[in-house]
Structure formats: C-alpha cells, structure tokens
Amino acid sequence: MTTIRRARRGGEEPGEDVILRIDGREVRARRGENLLDVARRHGFDIPGLCYHPRLTITGGCRLCVVKVGERPGMIPACTLEAADGLDVIAFDEELEGARRTLLDLLLSTHDCDCLTCASAGDCELQELAHRYGLDSRSRRFAALPRPLPPVDDSSPVLVYDPTKCIVCGRCLKACDEIQGKGVLSYAFRAMDTVVTAGLGRWGESECDGCGECIQLCPTGAITEKLAGRPRSWDVDVVQTTCSYCGVGCQLDLWTRDGSIVNVRGADSVPNFGSTCVKGRFGHTYVHRDDRLAQPLVRKDGQFVPVTWDEALDEVATRLGSIREEHGPDAIAGLSSATCTNEENYLFQKLLRAALGTNNVDHCARLCHASTVAGLAAAFGSGAMTNSIAELEFADCILVTGSNTTETHPVIASLIVRAVREHGADLIVVDPRRIDLTRHASLWLRQRGGTDVAWINGMLNVILAEGLHDEVFLADRTEGLDELRATVERYPPSRAADISGIPEALLIDAARRYATADRGSIVYSMGITQHVTGTDNVLSLANLAMITGHIGKPSSGVNPLRGQNNVQGACDLGALPNVYPGYQSVSDPVCRERFEAAWGVRLPANPGLTVVEMMHAAAEGRVRGMLIMGENPMVSDPNLAHVEQALRALEFLVVQDIFLTETARLADVVLPAASFAETDGTFTNTERRVLPVRRAAPSPGEARPDWQIVCDLSTRMGYPMAFDSPAAIMEEIAAVTPIYGGVRHGRLSPDGLQWPCLDLDHPGTPYLHEGRFSRGLGRLHAVEYRPQDEPPDDEYPLVLSTGRILHQFHTGSMSRRSDALNAYVNEGYAEIHPADLERIGATDGELVRIVTRRGAITTKALATDRVPRGTVFVPFHFAERAANRLTNDALDPKAKIPELKVAACRIERPERNHAERDAS
Amino acid sequence: MTDRLRGLAELRAIRETVIARRAQFDKRISVCNGTGCRACGGTEVTEAFAVELAKRGLDRSIELMATGCQGYCQRGPLVVIHPDDVLYEQVRPDDVPRIVSALERGEWVDDLLLEDPITAEKVHLRSETRFYAGQQRTVFALNGEIDPTSIDDYISHQGYHALARAVHEMEPDEIIEEITRSGLRGRGGAGFPTGKKWRFTRDAAGAVKYVICNADEGDPGAFMDRSLLEATPHAVLEGLLIAARAMGAADAYIYVRAEYPLAVDHVRKAISDAECYGLVGEGILGSDLSVDVHVKEGAGAFVCGEETALILSIEGQRGMPRPRPPFPAQRGLWGCPTNINNVETLANVPPILLRGADWYAGIGTQTSKGTKIFSLTGKVANNGLVEVPMGASLRHIVFEVGGGMRPGHRFKAAQLGGPSGGCVPESLLDVPIDYESLKEHGAIMGSGGVIVLDDSTCMVSVAKFFLAFTADESCGKCVPCRTGIRAMLDILDRITRGEGLMEDLPRLRELAELVQSTSLCGLGQTAPNPVLSTLRYFEDEYVAHIADHMCPAGVCKALIGGYRIDPELCRACDQCRKACPAGAITGTPGQPPYHIDATVCVRCGACVEACRFDAILRGPSGDAS
Question: How near does any CA of chain B get to the CA of A533, in Å?
Fold first, then answer.
C-alpha cells in the first residue's frame, strides 16, 4: 500500500526521528506516526482491513493487533503512535492465531462468492484468506446467518452488496472525511449492521456518484456498475490525467483489448485516489459509436468521407487562397483547452508561423481572460498562486464566484476538509446558496455584478481598522495611496447598499480574512465573466496584498481554471497577444526571439479574441477559420450571432472527436484522437504539468491533433516534423522560460509546477515568495461600475449561467456518458418560487426565458438556491442552449463577455414558442 | 423561587424555613412515587390520601409527601408513616381510609404490614424489616425522605451545602484531593479512582472542558441510577456541579435514557429550579463559577453507556466506541477534555465533601471505599435496591437483606454485574464483595446487578441469555464483538438444543478469550464473562448437556427426555393435570397415580412446579409404570 504524500503546513518538517523495535529489528520513524504505517513501510506486512492511510482510525477489524513492551494484551497497531524505544512484537504464534480466528469469523459472515465476484483478484479479504490458508475445509465457523437487505443497485454508477460487506467503515469515512459529503452511515447494529446511503437506497440518496467509497472498499461490497465485468488480472492499467475539469486528477484507466473498461483514481498528486463522478464514470464517450473516424469534406452541402490526403489538401488549398486574396489576418484559429500542451503549442505556431496571423484564441477567453489580464497587471503572472494541496491548510478561505463543489469537486473536498479537520474559517460570497455555504462561517449573498463594491467595502474596513499588513505593503507593493483614496469612498454602508450584503456581515468577513494567518482566496467565473471581470480580479488581488496574504504557503489568490488544459493552452500561447510563456507579441524582443526560433517573420499586431473573431467573421473581415476541439456553437455568448458568423465564413475546418454543433457547420471535419489515445501533457489549475498517456487506439482513421497540425503546416509550406509529443516539449522548453525545465521524462510521479526554469529546477509550489513576478505588486484603484445590462421593466430579472456537477462544458463528452445522463440529462432553470409564482407557473413546468438576444423554453426548478430576482441556467444543453440568451458585451481589457449577468424575463410558453425558439 | 442564592447562609435560611414549616405537622405520610410503585398504583394511592386527609380536615396536621423510589420495589406501592416509621406494603387506594383511621386512633393496619420472609411474622417498623435493617443507606439516605421535585426540601437536608463549600471554601485542586483521599471509585462498573480521573481532565490541555453524568443505565436488572435521579435529582446535580468546579468545565451534560421519563422530568425540574436559585448558570452562588447543565436523552442503545460512544451520541452521531487513547480526558466531547461519571458516583460526591474524606474512607474495604447500591433480583425473597458497605458478603445481601431464597429452592449462583458480569457460586457466598475480589472470581462489580439463581436455573441457558443480549447490543464496529459473540452464541445454542460436541468447550473458551482480548470496547471485552464464569464453576452442567444429553435443571426442552409420575408419591391431587397446558396428564382425583402421555407432553415443566409432593420426576420419557 502506498503511503500517501500529503502537503504539510509551510513545509514544516514532520518531526524528529525516533527509533523503535519491531520483532527485534530497529526501525526509524517520525514521532507520532501511525505504527501500522511504520511497520508496513519497513516491510512488516501486518494485515488490516479497516485502516486506510487517508482516513481517521477505526480500529474495528482488529487484525493489526500487536504486542507492545510490557503492556498487557494485544493492541491494534493502527491505534498506536511511533515513540522512541517502543518494543513491538508484530508476529508471533498468538498474534497470528488471533488474526486467523478473526479472519475466520469475518469469513463466516461474508458471502464468499469469489468465483463470480467483481472484485476477485482485487479484494483485500480474499488476499488475507489466501495468506492465512482459510479455505472451505480449514474454516471453523458455520456461516452465521444475517438478515440483510437485498443488493442495492439503485445508483446509476455503483452496486452495494451487503452480503460482501465486512463493516470496516472505510466507505463511510471516504464519503465523510475525504469527500465531506457524509451520505453514508450504518443502519441497524450487531450482525445486522449494514451501510446505508441517505435514508436507505443509494439511488434515492444525496450520493452524487463520486465513487470514493468504491475506491476504498476492500472487498466486493461496493463495486462499479460496469459493462463487461472486467477482472483485475485481465486488464492493463495506464495512469493519465482526467479530461474534465482543471483539477488534473490522476486516473488509472483499466483497458482490455484496447477499450477502457474501468476507471479508478490514481494514488498521486493532486487527487490521491479521489475523483468526481465525471472522472470515474464520464469517460465512456471515448468508445462511443458516433466518434469521428474518417475525415469529412462537405460536397454539395453533404459531408462525404474522404482520405486524409484529400481532406488536408482541401484545407491547405482553401486557407492558402484566402490568405493570398485577403491577407493572413483573414484567417483565425480557435485552439483548445481540452487538447494537450504540445497540441496547443503547435496550433498557435501554425497560425503565427505558417499562416502569419496572431488571430489565435480559445475558450479561456470566455472563462479566465480577466484573470490572466488582472493578475498579470497586479502580480506579473496570471495563474493560481498556490498549490491545490495548500488549500487544506489555510486558516481562512474566501470563496467567491466559484461553485467549487460542482465545478472542481476534488478541490471542494479539500476546502471542506480545511473547515472540518483543521477548523478553517470559510467565507462564501455568492448570490446562490451553493453547497459550500453549508460549511461556511459566513455567507455573503451579493447582487450579481457588484463584486468591486463589496471588495472595496472590505478593503475600506481593513484599512480603517488598521488590519492591513503595513510591512508587506511598504516592502512589496506600490499604489497604496491611490487605492486608499478610492476605497475611502466605499464605507461598509455604501458597499452594503450596492451589493446587498448586510454591513455587519461585510465587516465580519473583512476582519476574519484580514486577521487570519493564512488567507486564501478562491474564485472562478462568478468573478471573471463580467464586463468588470478584470476589475473584479484586480480587487481580489488588492485584498490579498493589503493583508499580506500572498507569497506564502496556503496564502494567495487562486483562480480555479475550468477545463482540463485551459491553463496549458494559455501558457502555450493560444492567445492573440502573447507567445508561449506570456511573452508579448508586441514586444520586439520577444518577437525577435520567436522569429529566430521559428525561422519566419512574425506579425506584431495582437490578434482577435474569441468574440471579436465572431464579429469579424460576421462582418467578412475573417473569412477562414480553423477550430481545434472547441464548440463555440454551445459555449459562446449570443449563439444566434455566433451561428450567423460561422455561416458567413468562406471556409471552416473543425478538428474534433465528435460531430459537434460547431463541426456540423464546417466545410472540412478532421477526426481527432481523444485524451485516452494520445501522449502529451496537460497543465492543471495549479500550474502543474501532468502526463497524458495513450491507453487505447483511436477509432478508424482518427489521429492525434498534433499530427494533424504538423501535416497541415507542412502542406501549407511551413514544415513541422515532430516524431513525438516529447520532442515538441523539447522545443516548448527552449522557447518558454516558465517551462524551461519541463521534459516528459521528469513528470513522474508528481508532475512539475511552473515556473520550472531549467532541468535542475524543482518547480514552484507557490508564487511570489519574496518578490512578485513583476517586481513590486501593483495595487489598483478600482471604481465600481454597474453591469452592462441592468434589469429594467421589460427584462426585470437577472440571468446567470454556469456549470453543474454531472455535465461538463458543452456536453460533447459528458452527455455521451449514460451514467452522467442518469443523474441529469436535460436543461432547466433555477428560479425562485416567488418569481415563478408571479407568472403563475410551478415547479417542473416549462417556462420561457427571454433576453434581448433570444429565448429558450426550459423546465423550471423552483428553488431558493437562487435569490429572488435571479434565474440560473446551466449552459451544457445545446437543445436549450443558455448561450442563446447571454450577453456578448465585453470587458474592455480582457475581452471576456459578460456571461454571468444579463437582463431577462420569464413567461409562460405558448404552444408555438418552443419551435420558434429552437430554430 | 426567584432569589439567587449567594452562599451557605442563605442555604441555611432556607433549611430552617423548611424545618420550621415541617414542625407544624404532627405526622407525615410518605407514599413512594418511584417508577416501580407508580406502576402498581402509587400515584392513585397518593391522590386517595390527599382526598382522605382533606375530607377529614387533617391536611394541616398531617403532611403528605410523594417521594422518589424507596428501593423495595417488589412490595410497592410503599407507604411510610413518620415519625412512627410504620411501613405498609402493596397499598391500594381503598386501603387509604383504613390507614388514616388507624393513624387517627394511634394504631396501625395489621394486614398491610410486611411479613418477614423467614419468620413469617408481621413487622410494623420500617427500620426493623430485614430488607432495610441490613442496609447502610448513605447515598440513598434521602430516598423516601424528601420530595424529589422540591429544591427546598433537598436544601433542608443540607443540600447544596457541599457545593457552597466547593465554590467558596475550596480550590479545585483541594476538591480533587478530597475526592482522591476518600477513595471513591467509579460506580459505573470499572471502578476507576474518581479523583485520579478528575485529575486527568483538570490537567489536560485546553480551555474548554466538559463534564458528563452518565445516566445511560443499560444493564437489564439494574435501576439504581434511575432511582437516584427520580428520588434525589439534586444530589446528582450537586455532584455534577462540584465536578465541573473541580475540573474547570463551563458546560455539563446529563446523558439519560429516554426510557426513564420520570427521571428526565425530575432532572429537568431540578436544573430549572437550581437555575432560579443561581445554583446553575452564570455566577453560581455569587462566585465566578458558571456552569450550564444540559440534558441529553439517549435512545437506549446499551453501548451508549460506553464513554466514547456516549460522547458521539451527544454529538448527534451514531454511538459507536472509538479506540482509546485518546481518552475522553484528553479528547472527548467536541474534541475537548471531558470527564464522565456515573450517576451513583456523582451522588457520592456531596456527602464526601460534607462529611470529609476520612469519614468516607472509613467505610468499606482496603481498596474499595464507601457503600454500593445493588439491584437485587431473581429467585430471592426480597427484590429491590440495596445499599451496603463495600466488603459486605453476598450471603449478607442474599440471605439477610434479601430474606433468603424463595421457599423450596436452593441458592445456586448469583450473576453479578449484569450481562457483562459473571456467575458466583455458592462456595463464594462469604467472600467480601469489592472490585478486586469480584474480578478475581470471574465476575465484575459492573453496575451492581445481583441476579439470584436457584436450582431450577440452567447455567448454560443463563450464559446464553446474557450472551444473546450482548450479541444483540454489539454496535457492530469491531469483528470480535460483532461476530465472535455471535459465534459463541451459536455454540451455546447448539449445546442447549442437544447438538453440542465436546470440542465445543475448548472452542468456546478460545473464542471467549479472543473476544475478551481483542474487542474494541468494554462491551466486547466483558461480554464473554457469563460464559467463562459458568464454564469455570459449572462445567459439569455443560458436560451433562453434551455428553449425557441432559439439562440437570430441566430447562432446556430438547434435553428433557420427559416427565414421569412416581406412583408411590402421587396423591392424585389433580394439580398437575390442571397446570398442564397441553392436556398430557390424565387421572382421576383421589385415585393415584396420574399418568403423563409423552407424545403430548411439551416439556414445559408446569407440572413439576404444580406438584406439592415432588411426585413428578425428570428422566426418560413417559410413564414410570
């Protein structure tokens, strides 16, 4: 069993060494370390079933009993701590006899159905029965009958078989202590004790399907509901990085005959075995029948399968002629937050070096463009300042605009652990009653779009009460006077008026955050997706700097990135204004460096951003587009306009794994490999470059994006000849200082966190220690500005959009998972009961949501999760696409659209609305 | 009652007022209103007295008091006339006019007096009854003497005087020293020195500490804690407050089972009355001591009497013990140092502080000080709660206080300490009972349950009975307790069904020792005691079941070959035929002998009980003829 590496507070050393004896041998340990861990680490394979290094001690199975010095009797090793001079007997006849009898007893209550059990070969009980030779002849106890409830297969993802449950409690603790959910408990007692979810059955409980219980179950009691009944000895296991959110969970893909048959969490950074429901059960899309398997070219309005040569020739010719006629800037490309670092690097290089334009962007524009802009201005680099693991050890965590539980579930579990295990103060600032509010000391419910106001209010309190960090401000920052002058105009009373947060709560929050030892800010799109997105980010940076909560472990500003490789796509220059490593295209020094490296002249003008591209396309300034693995037809604001723009293009090529809503509009469609079919790297939200490994062959003729881009570039007269993603990383490292030391060979086991400047550099767990990337931290005086489209008489409500746990982004992957669909497979709108009542509608009825840009008809979910006056719509569902409604007004600095607030109204749908809205 | 008291002087003033008021009455009629007596109509008897006294205009000269449990529950409802000390038993409401009339005449009602179980003579003085005369009631001193719902009444018996001392005259360390010197040990079962326990919690790091009164009395057959809470709730509360003072706790909990509604009511009333007097809450008795007292009702799982499970239960979680260390004194309720004492232990505290450690240490044996309350039940003449000094012999308890065995039966053993205790045979009747001696002989003090068994008891069945209880009450957390006890029960069950094998005995011992040595908490660690002690003292009965297919006590139906009637002894009285529920006995009255049809007999033994001539013999089935 692997010992779990857990981040420790501020790199404190784990305590002095002690020497103890086990079976006469001297061994070293840390004082207070769990004795069972110590013994196992030194090769004493003491049995045990209820102990798990990630959980608190249960002491239930009693198999790890040992004898200690003069102390009487047998004591479970898991309940003992290493201490100097401890004299332990781990194995003798009496101990082994007791263990054998205990196992024998366990087996007498266990359905030894090993012949067909899903966990055969992967079962700790089976392993011990084998070790102690407890076959059916040598077992001494008659089967003890237990009146147990039937097998519970009501969950979409797992099966609980009480007859195989040994009541070790690991699942309960996995659910409670690791995931912070506490859905599981015991029912009944004595021999009748069983695990129960919620009030009875899994399917009717609050279980969200994360599967942590499966991960930790030592027997076949809780198993995945899987097709094909994979046997553990019959599969290959490949560790790779999850393709969903930006946490970067390490997964073990079990494959058999080229198919992924099961997924488990891998025991390494950053998730140590945990996953969410998507990571564990959402990867079935890889083998769906509707995967693109052949290049398609549109002929007479119809897609026709063609050879790769024909398809690539068509692309090269058509793009070539557009460039000839209209210049390179008539071409634009969308790179991809789901593709690897290597692929993003090549894609932007294709646009810049081969095609000669900076018109390259990707959907990071829609999520964290304001983070990149804001944090770069304040600190000098725009990424999470700390490591994920450090969050668990913060004293005060301010979460705002992030529904972490649904968007970054494994990070949310760390935040909950910080609260529950370490007593951290959690302050949630969010208009919606998100799950984290249950664990929060304070919940501040601001009006959407008023973030600058409440943050200025907090700054005002902190400065007025002298809670700021004067030394830090003096030594490390500039701009305090201007900031002070501005925030003086935001006394708590005014901040409260604007934001709707009660004054006392605002003051309390300011004090708690300012006086914490380690204060961490966690935010996401609730902060960034506004016309004031950059201002919001700057304000949070102000908050961190005036309190000195930055540049230290567990203290910082932590934007959570939404997609698996959105961080990497930004790092590798899939942005119109910067080359890889955030080197500005308008900076002649940078440009010359890349011109030298790439051997071509490069354009100096920054290119178009996502929304600008769509405007330019609609206006005919952009005539050809390459889209790699993105789906703007669902993800972008004001979809009607996006569709109009894409249809207006002369030529559109889309590389993807499915015929997405966007691919359907293309002239050429190129079939790509999924994450499971390629090698490379993703960079997760904590700047950690993690390996992606090929586990399965691609369907048909589908090919990895990096190969497609290489071939395309070569055909366009700019040869790219890489034989592997590792070779691409060599080039990346040469031109990207923050990736200077990154090589594929260095990524095991823990990846590398940038900046990693050279081959000897260990990577950087947290940023800005001692010095900001830009030198001094810059405080920005920011004034509150109202949202672009405030509610009015015609559109009296505020529309907000976002993600939910069981679906992901545009749904192209998640909606192809039966398990995920079993939880949620249709769009809906969260509406306050009072708002619903005003139009005479009730929960579950269809309602029509209308904005100035469009309307959708969707199901109403009456809930006070949203405040009165706010409507929340998840954006994953193309058929009821939330982005038909959203506002494409842009933040002037970051060009991020205001997806989080728009004015809307709700009405009862008339019969013909649904058809009209869909068209 | 709104005046907040500040010290001893005010307590004394209340005391004098109550004594003065009481002096206006000539007599007092105390009617037991404990749970036992209420079940037999105690409340109705009390009401009847009230009506009768009022009717005769005696209510100004005769005080009527509904008391808490007086201990002699078997004979309830009990009525005591003070100061005459006349004890009436099993009083019904329609007896009341007779009693009052007799009282007016200065006489007593003969037929309501207790009959001595040995001499068969009527005893009219309570203090002369065998049951009370053999006791030394210290903790129980006020049971029956006061109205449990009256704080003034408690104060009039020097109630809260010890608290006043603890608050105003003693430093916490001095209190702990006093308790340590007294030699008081935990009455919950394990007998851990109370002073030492308090010292651990007092010295534990942490600003917030808790004290808890464990009133989750779970042993079947033990009810002394219920009795104390019902009868003298203030004494327990006072002990708890002194504990809080000694250990620096600002919050105290009383964890009481919800099945004790009367105890819960009295405790809640006691707390709210004490609050009005400033004895609970902010600034107790005008000092800087502040203690809030909370009542938490438990749902009745036996395991919740275990300290760590109890703590989880208060926290709102499933009550399941956790490994120790950390001990509750280090990390208990809500993660803070916590001290848990049993009800009876806390009730011992005020007398110790009032009368001094030396007085207390003078009672009992070398290692076990003070008195102990036992729940005396089973096949003994007097059932009830019995308080005797530590070191009293089992013979004293059973044959003096208990009045001996029921007629016609012989003492066989006593099960001491509840389901986790052990059986003590006749040969040990004279051993002085204290923590050490019981342990040495395979039993435990436990909660103080004494179940007297006679020759009609099958010891294998007794072990099975208690094991079935613990098997059922196992929380399910640890393997030895959850499955080991059940595997033992499985073996015992087979033995009593006549399917036992001789190799079951070593296996039973092996399992018992495994469960004892590897279980997580006290429940599992002590659960094998009934099996081990019966194997120790009554192995021959096990062997008889297995080797001879015989249940010597005639209890295990499968092992009763049947009954036959000895024609020499049969008097044809017809009693056996009437008693037989299966109609297996035939005969004509006056024409012996009767006959038993083995094919119809269900082996219930009712005929044996019914026969006054010992004419029905166990053995090979059917007719002797």
Answer: 42
Asked whether the beta carbons of residue B318 and residue A79 sit closer than 8 angstroms, the reply is: no
Which residues have CB under 8 Å from A718's CB, separation 6+? A350, A353, A354, A600
Q: Please name every residue paired with A656 in a beta bridge, in sequence order, or none if there are none.
A: A671
DSSP conformation class of A391: G
- Per-residue confidence (pLDDT) for residue B509, from 0 to 100: 96
Mean pLDDT over B330-342 rounds to 96
Return the pLDDT at A916.
Answer: 61
Contact flag A101-B519 (C-beta cutoff 8 Å) = no
CATH label of the domain that carries residue B426: 3.10.20.600
User: Residues B25-39: pLDDT tens digits?
Assistant: 999 999 999 999 999
Domain of B434, in residue numbers: 371-454
Kindly state whether residues B405 and B294 are assigned to the same domain. Answer: no
Q: What is the ipTM of this complex?
A: 0.89
CATH number for the domain including B477? 1.20.1440.230
Average pLDDT along chain B: 93
Record the pTM: 0.91
pLDDT at B619: 67
My answer on whether B448 and B463 are in the same domain is: no
B387 touches A at CB < 8 Å: no
Q: Is the predicted pLDDT of residue B193 greater than 60, yes or no?
A: yes
Residue B323 and residue B405 share a domain: no
Q: Are B179 and B195 in contact (CB under 8 A)?
A: yes
CATH number, residue B322: 3.40.50.11540
Residue finishing a domain among B330, B360, B390 = B360
pLDDT at residue B238, rounded to an integer: 98
Residues B245 and B163 grouped into a single domain: yes
Please check whether residue B569 lies inside any domain of the structure: yes
Q: Tell me whether residue A21 is exposed, middle or buried, using C-beta atoms within 10 angstroms of its C-beta: 0 to 12, 13 to 18, 19 or more.
A: middle
State whether B443 and B464 are in the same domain.
no
Question: Is the domain of B156 the same as that of B294?
Answer: yes
Tens digit of pLDDT for each residue in B507-544?
999 999 999 999 999 999 999 999 999 999 999 999 99
Domains held by chain B: number: 5
Residues 6+ apart with CB under 8 A from B305: B188, B214, B216, B217, B218
- Per residue, what are the HEC states of B187-252? CCCCCCEHHHHHHHHHHCCCCCCEEEEEECCCCCCCCHHHHHHHHCHHHHHHHHHHHHHHHCCCEE
Count of alpha carbons within 13 angstroms of residue A577, beta-carbon side: 9
pLDDT at position A807, please?
A: 94
Q: Which of A62, A140, A189 sits opposite B474 (nearest CB)?
A: A189
Amino acid identity of B537? Y
A108 to B476: CB separation less than 8 angstroms, yes or no: no
Q: Looking at residue A3, what is its pLDDT?
A: 30
Q: How far apart are the first and last CA of chain A?
A: 56
Kindly report the nearest CA distance between residue B525 and chain A, in angstroms.
Answer: 11
What is the distance, to the nearest Å, from the Cα of residue B419 to the centroid of all Cα atoms in its chain?
Answer: 13
| Domain assignment present for B321 | yes
Model pLDDT for residues A456-483, shown as the tens digit of each residue: 999 999 999 999 999 999 999 999 999 9
Contact list, A423 vs chain B (CB under 8 Å):
none
Residues of chain A with pLDDT under 70: 1-16, 911-919
Of B520, B547, B574, the residue that ends a domain is B547
B486 touches chain A (CB under 8 A): yes
> Same structural domain for residues B124 and B51?
yes
Residue B469: inside a domain: yes
The predicted pLDDT at position B563 comes to: 85
Please tell me which of the candidates B476, B480, B486 has its beta carbon nearest to residue A186: B476
**Which residues have C-beta within 8 Å of that of residue B142, sequence separation ≥ 6?**
B154, B157, B231, B232, B235
Pair (B231, B247) in one structural domain? yes
- What pLDDT does A917 receive? 62
Domain assignment present for residue B496? The answer is yes
Decide: B478 and A59 in contact? Cβ < 8 Å. Answer: yes
β-pairing verdict for B62-67 and B210-215:
unpaired
